Amino acid sequence: MDELNYNGFSNEENEIKSFGELNNTTGENVDANINGDVVENAAQYAAENIIENVDADVGENAAEGFGENVIENAAVGVADKRVENEKTYEGSFVDLKSASYYSESYTKPKKRKNSVLLQMILVAVMSSILGGSIVGGFFVFGVPALSPSVQSIFRNTNVQNGSNDATSGVDTDYYKKVVIENNADSSVVVAIAEKVGPSVVGISVKSTTSISDFWFFTPRDTESQGSGIIIRSDGYIMTNYHVIESALNGRTNTLLPNASINVILPSDPDTPHPATVVGTDSKTDLAVLKIEATNLPVIEFGDSDKIRVGELAVAIGNPGGLEYMGSVTVGVISGLNRTIPITDGKELKLIQTDAAINPGNSGGALVNAEGKLIGVNTAKIGGQGYEGLGFAIPVNKAKEITDSLIQYKYVRGRPSLGIQINSGYTKEIADRYGLPEGVLVYNVEIFSAAYKAGIQKDDIITEFNGVRVKNYDELEEQKNKYKPGDKVKLKIHRDGKDITVEVTLDEQK
Asked: Which UniProt keywords apply (predicted)?
């Protein structure tokens, strides 16, 4: 299947630029001649000239064509009727893995006057000309107002305290519960914003990067901003790994020279609190920070295994950076267990929501109607055609990871081989040199499980305990079915021969 682009059509279909090439779609040749000029791009002509009359053959005003769905209208022909086949755009055909993915930390840009206003005007003009742009979710500075019908649903809702289940695995004395006291005169969303908002903090990350200036590398200070969630009253903060990644040495998880991480509390936005890194986990995009503070307002944990599609979802964070700290967006749970690719070939199973998640929201809270944390905002599918696709790490997984990071400084229970692989080894390369598909070993860590089993650099792993593996993802999938200490057999191609070695899996630290 062709990869779908922003308007739901395949790349091949979108190569059709001129009206003449749309002949098979519109039912007639629309090589429109307007005042002697051939229109080759309807959208461009609409934007620049606001089509008043599209050819004597059409005989209809463009605006009327929009209102009456006249196929001859050039803009409608391009935007809505390019291909009459029903299969050109269905939800099931949108491949999230082919979409552009970006995580949601916010890099503070230099201020440019009137740029935002100009973009908003351009979007409004293009929407009015071409029609039909739908924005998923909505964004508010403060608390959104609900319609009377929605308010009537949530009025008289009695929100009870959660059980102590959310704090299992960590000393429960450290946790404070957020209690939402609702009444007939306030909506659940207002109560959530007032009670949960103090538990969502701002995170400012400063680091120095080297910028190439032809012959030289010039150091430049950069600042990125994100969100975090207070999970213990004595200063423990949960956030996304990618929010703080730029300030860390990837091998040691320590701060780089001239780098800093500061936490900003909603109750005292003018006082940055220096943070230390307790632990990180790039596989789940989670990290734990620690600041010197006490009696902090702790968010209440919910149960992400019990949420249902269609439930109310409220995202609280700092979209656009700390300038809009504590912003609230409202939507619903749109989907569960969405497998979304992230960096380095990793994938996460996430909660999908249409509550707006924008740069700076990373590490912020996604809560339910009771004000309980159900997810950690982490990502959005970017690009045109993907509005309203925000994602959050399920809180049950997030809590499991952060509990382990706090107690052990790493995630316990993960098996490890102790190898680095060459990701450039593909089926095409293997076929070219007459080698088998598999995982090409680039490096073997000293004293690791692979080292002890005799695995060497340039070995090609083709089977894991009898299961054929053709790439790193398949190797990881099989490895993660086992526990540290388990014995497995790997088939390896080395020097033109296949050999089998037994490996006792280590624990990844």
From this structure: Hydrolase, Membrane, Protease, Transmembrane, Transmembrane helix
